[in-house]
Amino acid sequence: MSDIPENPKVSRKLAAILAADIAGYSVLMGADEAATVRDLKAHQVVILPMIGEHRGRVIDTAGDGMLAEFGSVVNAVECAIAIQTIMGERNTQVEEPRRIQFRIGVNQGDVIHDESRVYGDGVNVAARLERVAEPGGICISAKVYEEIAGKMNVVCQDLGLHQLKNITQPVRAYRVNLNEPFPDSPHIEKPTLSVPQKPSIAVLAFTNLSGDPEQEYFADGIVQDLITELSRISELFVIARNSSFQYKGKATDVRQIGRELGVRYVLEGSVRRGGDRIRISAQLVDAGTGAHRWAEYYDRKIDDVFAVQDEVVRTIVAILAAHVRKAETERARTKPPNSWQAYDYYLQAAESQTIFSASFTTEDLYETRRLVQQSLAIDANYARSYALLARTHVAAWQNSLDSDFLNPAALEVAHQFALKAVQLDPSLPECRAALGFVLAWKRQHEASLAEIERAFALNPNYVEWRLGLALVVAGQSRRALDVLEASMRLDPFYSPVACFALGTAHYTLKQYEQALIVLRDCASRAPNLRGGHIWLAATYARLGRMEEARAEAAEVLRINPNYSTAATTRRIMGFKSAEDAEHFFDGLRKAGLPE
Fold first, then answer.
1. What is the pTM of this model?
2. Bridge partner list, 57
3. Which helix (H) or strand (E) holds 208?
4. DSSP 213
5. Which of 143, 188, 281, 404 is deepest in the core (most CB within 10 A)?
């Protein structure tokens, strides 16, 4: 869209540009290409005429994208809202994993215009804003917001300045809130303040849980002293009491407080006083994510209330400062490499890695490695790239992709890369997870579980199907169910391999009916995934459905005519539990798969 044609007939004009694409389009296409194309065409029949109804003109509908031009900003935003509203209604009739959700960006700018297309930064900003929008959401530029203010009853949230790819100047973005009823007059939430370079914190008024309003002074005194002592630490940026106490007694999301005060951390707490004892609780929250970084409480006797207050304040400040420094160190480690080009290569590799998916090919393997090596050539100490590289070698070891198939040397290479990732950054859960995953296939189950636990401790929400599968192999299938179900809930466009992993957990727990449901889903979405048919054959055999078990065994041999349980599956599935192993391999024998 940025290539400007050399055409004497082009002209410039001010226009509103609506750009849309489909969230997770590659995942939908990978799961069922024909159905995705069919669904998209059906939606377009409804959506494209709406652009004309709002006095717009369709410029392009290539692939999963959609580009339209409007003479009126109001018309463009009204059209975007109408599209997302109708798509929300249409998606209620579709299963969640198959829903097509558009992300829409709207910008106003000077564009170069010819007889069929528009070009220039005005178009490019709209296209980049769509990437900022949530699935099913709308993101608009500051120019668009200024135009619709006073003309449309919409609620907008200031998302702050964004450095958009290939756009020189940062662009302020706003989210159109489609979930709130429109107010009587247009308004915008309080603007986002930029976060200072140094660690920044706001100490909120502590809640008085004593049931005695007279004790309010004590809670407020604790906070005042905390703010004073924290302000003495030169490397901290501390919000003044007057601002942080604006939220006293209000149920406000700490993420909103972080945006409105422009801070990275929020300290909140409570004071409960009863008889001759007092309990003071405090917790540090990451204002960007809402995640808790630290929490502690202090029980004391009130012999000298001021001495207690001083002691608790000094203790909290010392511990708090240490935790803020630790969090800032982690944040620095997880920042992209110094070179954005290195980071870009890593992102391309991560995007391309459909590792262990049904469609993963030798070409995919080598392309992923090439991109990762490009990243490491620029920044040789980027831990995430090593973790990703480790996964490619596990993929080569587990799948018939090249000479590394079931070659112990390939697994050892994966192990070395995973160790390197952890050594470079032990605080990244994906590095710990990569090491835990490799150790599972090296049959070092206790070490694998230890790394998995470390990954969960670093981020309880870091759940993915690989960790679930490693837990199954390690004999913790019930735990694996929780991890896999959480993973699929957090990623509605989950890979068919997630179904495969969930099926293995149900099978080992002898929950065959539940295993059958997800394994059949896996086989239908990924018909060439050998593992799905192997476990499905064993499941059918356990249910006594021998004809279907033999049919699945035939599918395994179709995919790999030279397959034998001893040569392949026994070497890959290194169960910790001998009982789990016999339970599985006996099912394969019953299904008629060759030993």
1. 0.49
2. 69
3. strand 207-208
4. G
5. 404
Cβ burial of 250 (10 Å; 0-12, 13-18, 19+) is exposed
Placement of tokens 């200031």 in the chain: 158
Count CB atoms within 10 A of the CB of residue 197.
7
Q: CATH no. for residue 67? A: 3.30.70.1230
Token pair recorded at residue 479: 């735990």
What is d(CA 433, CA 417) in angstroms, rounded to the nearest whole number? Answer: 12
- For the segment 492-520, the average pLDDT, to the nearest whole number, is 89
Is there a single domain that holds both residue 150 and residue 29?
yes
Task: Give, in order, the Cα–Cα distances in Å from 249 to each of 207, 216, 477.
Answer: 8, 12, 45
Q: Exposed (0-12), middle (13-18) or buried (19+): which is 450, by Cβ within 10 Å? A: middle
Q: Are 245 and 224 in contact (CB under 8 A)?
A: no
Listed in sequence order, the residues at least 6 apart from 177 whose beta carbon sits closer than 8 Å to its beta carbon are 154, 155, 156, 157
> 120 — alpha (psi -120 to 50), left (phi > 0) or beta?
left
Instruction: State how far the Cα of 80 lies from the Cα of 301, in Å rounded to an integer.
Output: 61
Whether residue 363 is found in the same domain as residue 298 = no
What's the pLDDT tens digit per position in 551-595? 999 999 998 888 888 766 777 788 999 999 999 999 999 999 988
CA distance 72 to 242: 43
Residue 439 CA: distances (Å) to CA of 474, 570, 574: 10, 17, 11
- Compute the distance between CA of residue 580 and CA of residue 574 in angstroms, rounded to an integer: 10
